[in-house]
Amino acid sequence: MLQQDKLRFVLTSPLSGEGPIADHVRSHGDGVRDIAFWVDDARAAHASAVQRGARSVQEPTRLEDARGEVVVAAIATYGDTIHSIIERRNYSGVFLPGFEPASSSFKARSTGLKYVDHCVGNVELAR
Fold first, then answer.
1. pLDDT at 113
2. What pLDDT is attached to residue 90?
3. What secondary structure, in 3-state letters, does 35-101 show?
4. Rg (CA), the chain
């Protein structure tokens, strides 16, 4: 995970030829699978999106560890891309349950990034 202020980028790569990450890379090549949003209330955000026509791909699910709990849900966007909806207000860990802090002797300099103002999704033309 790469982090600066509230921006977090989680990079994943398959460790073998099997599994959901390997399947996605095989189908699409390197790319973005999930654009996640940090929200105050994941259950309400998910319900509102579905009520307005979004297709749910993950109902709100509570995840927990010793540092607290998060609620994660997801909706479909285009192709195989999804938007995760993440509520972290009751969580004090580094990111999500299962993530542990890592140390490095590398000292990164700030890039000055504070916010993501938009994301672009490239889709194929219908044939």
1. 87
2. 97
3. EEEEECCHHHHHHHHHHCCCCEEEEEEEEEECCEEEEEEEEECCCCCEEEEEECCCECCCCCCCCCC
4. 16
Give residue 114's pLDDT: 85
Q: Tokens 């285009």 — which residue?
A: 78
pTM value > 0.85: no
Percent of the chain with pLDDT over 90: 54
Question: Which tokens is 90 given?
Answer: 């009751």
User: How big is the CA angle at 29 (ends 125 and 38), to the nearest 5 degrees?
Assistant: 85
Domain assignments of the chain as residue spans, ordered by start: 1-127
Classified by CATH at the fold level, domain 1-127 comes out as: 2,3-Dihydroxybiphenyl 1,2-Dioxygenase; domain 1 (3.10.180)
- Return the sign of the alpha-carbon dihedral for residues 113, 104, 95, 82: positive
The yes-or-no verdict on residue 75 having pLDDT over 90 is: yes
